[in-house]
Amino acid sequence: MAADGPYRRVLLKLSGEALMGSREFGLEADTLKRLAEEIRGVVDSGVQLGLVVGGGNIFRGVGGASHGIERAQADFMGMLATVMNAIALQGVLERMGVPTRVLSAIAMQQVCEPYIRRRAIHHMEKGNVVICAAGTGNPFFTTDTAAALRAAELGCDALLKGTQVDGVYSADPKKDPAATRFDKLTYHEVLSRDLQVMDASAIALSRENGIPILVFSLHKPGALRDVVRGKGMFTIISDD
Hints:
The model has no long low-confidence stretch (mean pLDDT 93). This protein is α/β, with parallel strands linked by helices. The chain has eight helices and eleven strands. It is 37% helix and 18% strand. Helix 1 crosses helix 3 and helix 5 runs parallel beside helix 7. It has a single domain (9-165, 195-213), classed as Carbamate kinase (3-Layer(aba) Sandwich). A nine-stranded mixed sheet has the order 4-3-5-2-1-6-10-11-9, with helices on both faces. The chain has a two-stranded antiparallel ribbon with strand order 7-8. 45% of the residues are buried.
């Protein structure tokens, strides 16, 4: 089935916090189900979909380091948390009939496949959702950077960043009612204004590979499907 929008293959970045719902930590079943339904809608539209999921709902490396754990060790703990989230999301998707593969940058064959670029592309071409877990497999790199890296490696047409608001603002709109919303930004503007959409290395990597970043709200039903079709509310970051 051919995609019915401008993007044939996309990568979605989900933070670990997006899986918490109303909870203070961990996973919320209703939130997982809702996100899985959104993902299924995209797959049903003919778009090849990859995901990178964070682990901040379980363990955040920077936070662990601030409590006395050596930073590299704390980052590896955070990577393992992303694998847990990926397996949970895979379980919900497959119960909905969506074929899904978890590929981890840290080898753990008993629970998921190792991340191999050509294998990931093959899965996506077959219509499987590919969840890339364990970040880049290296400490000191965020899952934002991992998302930009995987989007480039897998030949994605766009990198989608699901957030708590419907685009990029000049400040946190929940704290500053005068914050300005942007429909379009360049990579340079994001970096020069320090807009905190994604970390600087993720923005730079996307710019080097000409991958547009689309920032949208995870909370609006159908938003993911709309964004993939080039519709709805989102901010696009590109050089155009």
